[in-house]
Amino acid sequence: MIQFHRVPADRLAALASGLGGPASVxxxxxxxxxxxxxxxxxxxxxxxxxxxxxAEDVLVRADRNDRRVVAELISDxxxxxxxxxxxRRLVGRQASVDSDLRQLGxxxxxxxxxxxxxxxxxxxxxxxxxxxxxxxxxxVGADGPVVIDVSDGVASIAGPARTVRVxxxxxxxxxxxxxxxxxxxxxxxxxxxDCSPYRNSYHAPPVGRLGPDELQWWRQLFADAWSLLVRLLxxxxxxxxxxxxxxxxxxxxxxxxxxxxxARDMFGALALTRPTSAPDLAITLVHEFQHSKLSGLLELVxxxxxxxxxxxxxxxxxDPRPTAGLLQGVYAFLGIADAWHGxxxxxxxxxxxxxxxxxxxxxxxxxxxxxxGSRELTTEGREFVAGLxxxxxxxxxxxxxxxxxxxSRRALEICxxxxxxxxxxxGNPTVAQAVSSPETASRRTAAA
Length: 448
Fold this sequence. Notes:
Layout lengths: L8 H8 L4 H26 L4 H15 L1 H8 L2 H15 L6 H4 L1 H13 L3 E7 L3 E4 L3 E4 L4 E8 L2 E5 L4 E3 L7 E3 L1 E7 L2 E7 L19 H21 L1 H10 L2 E4 L10 E2 L7 E4 L5 H21 L12 E2 L8 E2 H21 L6 H23 L6 H18 L5 H25 L11 H10 L1
Parallel strand pairs: 9-10, 10-12
Antiparallel strand pairs: 1-4, 2-3, 3-7, 4-5, 5-6, 8-9, 11-12, 13-14
Helix pairs in contact: 1-13, 2-5, 2-9, 3-4, 3-7, 8-9, 8-10, 10-11, 11-12, 11-13, 12-13, 12-14
């Protein structure tokens, strides 16, 4: 059912703390499902291919048979990417979107398989494959129209070059892989997406199908990272258990830096290059899940004005950032600072975690100072930033060794000078200078 969603004041305040809790995350996910249902309705109405009606009928019957299954399909982040991207192309009157519209048949086929319906549906192969959300991808050998038959619990996909059975013993069927982990009483299962054509929404290309050894490596590292999160960052692990759905491995080019990212259309998903260790993965999960939460909130509450023109210093990069972008960065780095603070409790990580914690909290302090000086926050935005400040002050009150404090101050100064030089060279007159100096940040830390 499509619902009208609001964010109560207590939920907004909870999210402004940098956390929010599993209930807040679940509510954001429900709101995303409502949006996707609206987009799906638009796609069904736009489909003039003959199979649009039958796909809709199958989905409606599946919803009547098992509403949980259809809700899970709609909540798949890759379904979110497909619906949003296709609707944008339709509205923008871009090149033919027939191949995207025909993914309705693949979605309906997944619902038929999972609810025990018989159905005959048409879809379209993209990149030589047909992805059935939550199930896997059939490699049909070429792009073009396909027919999906589901009968007596058996499904096959007839494509341009071959017919593929949705079965483990068909070498052209690529089942969706999953990463599962449990520590104490807290468990999580996420999709490891390495086939869907809609996973290519990031600043680095996705990897292809993972080999058995690489898959096992991801599974072990994820289990190790989850153990760290539950033991040392339990509240963040609880949030992820409620809302993290998909990891998308990204390719790392020779000499390139590690990358990670979230896409606004894929709530609950994050993409990342191969992590180097369990702590690295744990920090990346916290970082990107912060972005996912804030992006979900921004679908419901406007925190910055839409006609923003200000540019600010963001203490984690050298290019000027708009107010909305700075808010995203502060929220993410507040999570990172909190995560490093928690990881200090692990003896083997204490030195690294303390050093990273000192740097991250100083970055948050400086970024917040810029936000607090902005004229582009809405009333809700000012309340949200005030909540972030309260969370930041609690972290700033934590003692760290003098050498780590000094190192964090130097790191901020180096970044600020690089930003000022870039701003001077670009001659950009709109850069907002609202940024706490190293001395101001130091006084805050000492006073706390």
